[in-house]
Structure formats: C-alpha cells, structure tokens
Amino acid sequence: MWVLITIGSIIALIVLMVLVAQIKIKCDLCKKRFPWSIDKQEKQELIPELKGSSSFGYRYGHLCPACWSKLKMRSCVLCDDDFDVEKNEGALLFYNLKENGVELGQLKPSSFACPLCVRKSFRDRCEICRKAFYRKDNKAGDLNENDVLRLIKSERSDRDKMVPANAKWVKEFERVCERCFEEACSELDALGYVLRGGGWIGGTKSNSIDGYHLAKTIGSISYDGKSCGRPEDVSAILKRDAVLAGGNAFVNSRIEGHVEAIPETYLAGYSKNGNPYYKERYRNNRWYTGSATAVLLATEKADREGRGEKGRSKKGEATGSRPQRIVIDGLNVCYWGDSETPDLSIVLDVASYLVEHGITFIC
Known about the structure:
Number of strands: 12
Mean pLDDT: 78
C-alpha cells in the first residue's frame, strides 16, 4: 500500500514539474511569451550595465533566449571584435597583468576580453631576470633541451653539496623570456666548449701548473656523494664544477677513498631435513670523494694580448712583424671584460677583427 502511494506521489510530482515548466511568461524586451523554464534572467549578471534596474535586480525581469543571444554579444576591449560574453576572460587578464606589474591601461576587472586576445596577452615573470614577458614566448622548454645544459645535468650525480655558481644551471626552468634564453645559450656555448675539452688546462694536486700563472682564484669546489666508484669520476665532477664556476683548471685537489662494510644474508645450504639455513657476510662498498680550488689560469702571452700590448724592441719601437696564425684561448678572452661570467661576444669581436685584417686563426 505504501509503495503504491509513494509511486503515485512521484508520478504526480513529475507531472506537476512538467506543467510548471510549460508555464509561459512575457519577455520584458521583445514582449513575446516563452516557457518559464528557459528564462535567461540571471544571465544578466555577466553584464554590469544590465544589473539593478528592476525589482528582480536586473534591467529585464524576464528575458527569452532569443533576446539574450543578442544582448550577450559584446566588443572585446583589445581587438574590438564581438564575442560571446559568457566566454569573457577580462577579469583573468586584469589580475594576471596586475600580478606581473604590467601597465593596465583601460583594462578593468569588469572589462570584456575575448579568450583569443587573453591568451595572446597573458604574462609570466622570467625566473632569470624577474621581468614580465608574454607567456606565449616562453623559452623554458627550449632551454631545458639545450645540449650543454643536458650534459651538465647528466653529470650531476647525487652530490650532497653544490656551490652557488653551479646551482644556477642544475635545475628545470619553467619561465624564461627570449632575451634571457639567448644570453643563456651564449653562456652555455662557452661552457660547453670548455666542458668538451677546449680551453681546459687541467687539474693537479699541487698549487700550480707548469707554464701558467694564477689569474684568478674562484673558490672551493667539492664532491661528497657516494656514486663515484673511481678517482677519475671525482676528477670529472671537479672539472665540471670548476668550469661552471668560471675556471679553466683546478689546483690543490684531494681525492679520498672510503670503504663501508655492508652486511648481507645469503643462502648457505640445506639441513638433513631439507630446510634452508642462512649465514651473514660482509660486502665492502667503496666510493670516492674529493675537493679542490677552482682557478682561472693564464700565460704571459694571453695577458699581453688581453691588455692590448704590442711587442717592443729594447728601444721601445714596434717590431713590425705580422703574425701568420693566431690561437685564441676562448675562455681567457671571454673574461677580458668586467663580467664575472664568460662573455662570448668578446671572442666574436676578436675573431671578426682578425678576419677583417686577413689573419688566420684557430679557436
């Protein structure tokens, strides 16, 4: 009995809802009648000028779909083209520009802006220079795919320590503007040249390398991880760290071996009853760590070229001899300016000068 009453109530409610939905009301704009269930009255909330004029809180108490489809077309503040106001993203763009310190101009939170213009106008803040740039021009993905950067990351291993100069590159970039991307690629090209052996002088346990003198002491570098199973692996990491810090050699290197006895259980055999029994033994785990001082070394000849000095005779007169071929020490030349990081443009200027004067060179 109760089941029949419940089913009957549900059916009656459905019928009532259908009847109510068919009730027709008059549109306040075109004066035509339309079903109450498709009233677009609340859509006026999207257009500030249509709010607050009637007892319903909107200019039009009732609004049919046909009239709303005409009212909702608005002009984009950026391109002046008409678009559907239900897709308005003006407020998103306003707060994006405000957050990134961009001049807002005529843009307001209530402004109408089409999605296409908003996508073109969105800004991000470059994580290198901290300046705003167009999001569509983000070069972070291209920078992360740079061959030299990938080489640096592939040799990272599990170092427990990292000098600040190295931390600049051992990361995944997310927001990079085009200008910083180009500058980073130039700097990485210079680093890659040395990392692959060009301009690298070497590493030593002593405090100097024959034929070179100290031009600049950069600082201490070290590796304290456990992944290097050979001394050569530590030397490779120290070389990489020295180059990233701006050097072309390291001195006073010290590489230490470490051994750790690690217990492990193994199957020793089976009893007369066929049951397995185990014993414990120790396995030696060996690894190497190291430290050194990253330096920038130079020859006397490189110093004279860097200062722009010419060969002089004892009486102070120019010798007048024309060089047949010049070798450019790329890393030293990169530091002729005041910058603490390699500047590839200096090398390019020197190369251009030599080409202009017909002098053969190698770099």
